[in-house]
Specification:
It is found in: Membrane. Its main location: membrane. Keywords: Membrane, Transmembrane, Transmembrane helix. The chain has one domain. 65% of the residues lie in helices and 0% in strands. The protein has eleven helices and no strands. α1 packs across α9.
Length: 329
């Protein structure tokens, strides 16, 4: 009976997370950003629910790339990495100690980030189609001149995001680790059930603020959306994706919003995702609050340039380090 209950809990949690993730982009854009900016905005179901359905019925296009199958599989790999993060946060999976740990979670998050670099580096087309004529014309290309594509610029942006932008989130993740003196999710949750949530401490408050900055950066949301700056690289590495592959991109972002907020409740409140536990109501509330806060910040924010992006990331990282130091006091 216990095994059956565990299976029901795992499957039920995935279903709820998936369903909520489909509606969060609409909540973010319709009820927050649009209201603040005094515009109508898209329908609630459009960004996260109807858009993927629409793209599933679009004509499948083979992009101009050396490895089209891998290129179109990258959004699916991204979704799977996020799915496994949620899976190993569940109490039913704590027996998989190596995966149900901070190291395992960070590794899966890094896979999700690296996917953007592969997306940009593999594409050699414009809007998923090869140019109708050769782009090398006599006299147009000087000898030994390096040729590049728009997507290669987005790849460089993705590298900067991975190399610098993710520091705040990962530093904040280690605040509960130092307080509980364990890398395992089971120990972090058990510690807070006895001593109270990490959030209700000075280090926890600072760490939560830094975590939220990292949350926005990983979701590439204004003002941290250097990955898809509209000025020069429209939609960044996601530009070339069409039909079903683009539908997976939309689904992946909504699901990532749910999983990152759930990671926060697990690490800072000691409430893991578990459909069989009534405390999951708190987790669901955080899942809804985070996009609302993010949309509120984004509605008033421009796009950061590198000159603005780096100082904010460095400042947030320093705050995160301060939170780590406070845990020893």
């Amino acid at each position: 009976m216990t095994v059956i209950n565990s299976i029901i809990a795992v499957i039920g949690t995935f279903i709820v997370a998936f369903f909520v993730g489909l509606w969060l982009p609409g909540l973010e854009r319709k009820f927050v950003q649009a209201r603040i900016q005094q515009r109508i905005g898209p329908p609630l179901s459009s960004p996260g629910f109807m858009a993927p359905i629409k793209f599933f019925f679009k004509e499948t296009i083979t992009p101009n790339t050396e490895m089209p199958r891998l290129y179109n599989a990258l959004p699916i790999i991204s979704i799977l990495s996020v799915v496994f993060i949620l899976l190993f946060m569940m109490p039913q999976m704590y027996s998989f100690a190596a995966f149900a740990s901070i190291i395992g979670i960070i590794g899966l998050l890094k896979i999700e980030e690296v996917i953007y670099m592969f997306m940009g580096s593999l594409s050699k087309s414009v809007l998923s189609l090869r140019m109708a004529f050769p782009d090398i014309v006599k006299g147009a290309k000087h000898p030994e001149t390096q040729r590049s594509y728009l997507e290669e610029l987005s790849t460089k942006r993705a590298f900067r995001l991975i190399a610098f932008g993710s520091f705040p989130l990962y530093i904040a993740i280690f605040v509960p680790v130092l307080m509980t003196k364990s890398l395992y999710m089971s120990d972090i949750v058990a510690y807070q059930q006895i001593h109270g949530p990490v959030l209700f401490s000075l280090a926890g408050i600072i760490g939560a603020a830094v975590f939220f900055v990292g949350y926005m950066i990983l979701l590439n949301e204004y003002p941290f959306s250097i990955l898809k700056a509209k000025a020069d690289v429209i939609e960044g590495p996601l530009l070339e994706y069409a039909s079903k592959s683009r539908a997976y991109v939309y689904i992946s972002r909504g699901f990532l919003m749910v999983v990152l907020a759930t990671l926060f409740t697990t690490l800072f409140l000691g409430i893991p995702p578990n459909l069989m536990d009534w405390h999951s109501i708190v987790s669901l509330a955080v899942v809804l609050i985070f996009p609302i806060l993010m949309a509120s910040v984004s509605a008033f924010s421009p796009i950061f340039t590198y000159r603005q992006f780096y100082p904010v990331v460095v400042g947030s990282s320093i705050l995160g380090v301060a939170a780590l130091v406070v845990t020893f006091l």
